[in-house]
Design goal:
This protein has 210 residues and is of the alpha+beta class. It has helices at residues 5-22, 34-52, 60-74, 139-146, 161-169, 175-180, 190-206, and strands at residues 75-77, 85-87, 91-96, 105-109, 117-120, 123-126, 132-136, 154-158, 184-188. It has seven helices and nine strands. It has a five-stranded mixed sheet with strand order 7-4-3-8-9. It has a two-stranded antiparallel sheet with strand order 1-2.
Length: 210
């Protein structure tokens, strides 16, 4: 389990930084409320994954690259499924351990498989906005779904709001310090921990200079 832990935290870090860069979103202030942070994180995750999986009708190479990344990370061969394949639908909840932070982000992969592809004048194309759903929840909403295995596969609990804010602005990420300082705790189905870790590693490779 600990082997996959760095991948999950590193993946979230990289996607949020990418979202901030591509969405031209300024860095978060050090003193920020939990609700504001939750909405900001949800936006960064959507923009970051959207950029990685962006399609371009005028750029065949980019369209093929996005399709390849999607298939390698989210498409699963399954003889039992219709058409012989299904899609990874991991569901994650990010919260903090500090009472009253009101910092809750719920994000899901491929929440509506039927909406993953859209029709275009040039044929069927991947809809990057349908690959990841991310939203801010209230404390009551988050508490209600946290223990429901049908709605949440993994829960990532950070120490407090301040421990999350620094992730976006850092150019480097010290996973060892997070472990040693007990800044992040991860609970839930370990299958999803390793799957997310694999996706995160591929995100890291995708962002390497070509």
């Amino acid at each position: 389990m600990h082997a996959a832990f760095p991948g999950v935290t590193q993946g979230i870090h990289e996607v949020m930084r990418l979202g901030a860069r591509e969405g031209k979103i300024p860095g978060l202030p050090e003193q920020v409320g939990g609700t504001f942070l939750a909405h900001g994180m949800a936006l960064l995750l959507k923009v970051g994954f959207g950029f990685l999986l962006r399609d371009s009708l005028l750029n065949k190479k980019q369209a093929e690259k996005a399709e390849k990344f999607f298939r390698e990370n989210f498409e699963i061969t399954d003889p039992q499924a219709e058409g012989g394949k299904r899609y990874y639908q991991g569901k994650f909840l990010i919260r903090t351990n500090k009472p009253g932070d009101d910092m809750n982000v719920y994000f899901r992969f491929c929440p509506k498989p039927e909406a993953l592809y859209k029709k275009t004048p040039f044929g069927k194309a991947l809809d990057s906005s349908a690959v990841v759903s991310a939203e801010a929840l209230t404390e009551e909403e988050a508490a209600k779904i946290e223990k429901d295995p049908d709605r949440v596969d993994m829960v990532l609990r950070f120490k407090d709001v301040k421990s999350i804010v620094g992730l976006v602005g850092r150019s480097e990420f010290d996973t060892a310090s997070l472990l040693l300082e007990n800044i992040v705790q991860i609970t839930g189905n370990t299958v999803h921990l390793f799957k997310f870790g694999a996706i995160a590693k591929n995100i890291e490779l995708e962002l390497l200079p070509s």
